[in-house]
Amino acid sequence: MQTDPAAAPQSPPPADAQQPQNDAAQHQELIPEPVLSDELAQAQEEIARLGDQLLRARAEVENIRRRAEEEVAKTRKFAVETFAEALLPVKDSLEAALADTSGKIDVLKQGVELTLSQLKSAFERNRLQEIAPAAGDKFDPALHQAISVQPAEQASGTVVSVLQKGYRIAERTLRPALVTVAQ
Asked: Which three-class secondary structure state does DSSP give residue 132?
């Protein structure tokens, strides 16, 4: 028995082989060419507009970064300015004390006390604080430096005596207080 090739079922071509061509052909058939040209022109205009926005945004970010760097440089350069201004009267007072030829100890002592008062005021205005623990305060390694440990009637790990005051600006320790700690 012979089979008619026209009557034999043929397997359909793979879907992925013919589909893209058919979709493209159908798409072109559905959308007229002038509409496609208009859409292409609009897409190109949108790309150009977005590219311009991107360039402007990058330039703005670069300008902000540059201005921030300049501001940081100025801050570093002039950070000590207000503190220096606060110390100028202290220097003037010390020079005046050295220039005094009266020889009166009381006058000299009074001048030194006033100068110390000016210095303390300058420290306060610039947030420079003393670290001066009292005997019996708990030893804090962030604020104190133990020079020695000695037996004492106080609780272990507490300050017995202060050998030198410490200082800090805001919350940053510039110099820890030198202390003796109870054993």
From this structure: coil
Look-up of token digits 């947030």: 127
Residue 164 bridge partners (DSSP) = 178
Cα–Cα distance, 168 to 173 (Å, whole number): 4
E strand spans, 119-158: 128-131, 144-150
CA-closest candidate to residue 124, choices 168, 89, 165: 168
Q: Side-chain half-sphere of 177: how many Cα atoms within 13 Å?
A: 22
Instruction: Return the residue matching tokens 């000695």.
Output: 150
CB 89 within 8 A of CB 114: no
Q: What is the residue extent of each domain of the chain?
A: 29-77, 128-183
CA 167 to chain centre: 23
pLDDT tens string, the chain, 183 residues long: the values are 455 555 555 555 555 555 555 555 555 567 678 788 889 999 999 999 999 999 999 999 999 999 999 999 988 888 788 888 999 999 999 998 888 888 889 888 998 999 999 999 999 988 899 999 998 899 999 999 999 999 988 899 999 999 999 999 988 999 999 999 998
What is the C-alpha to C-alpha distance for residues 177 and 174, in angstroms, rounded to an integer? Answer: 10
- Superfamily in which the 128-183 domain is placed by CATH: Head domain of nucleotide exchange factor GrpE (2.30.22.10)
pTM of this structure: 0.56
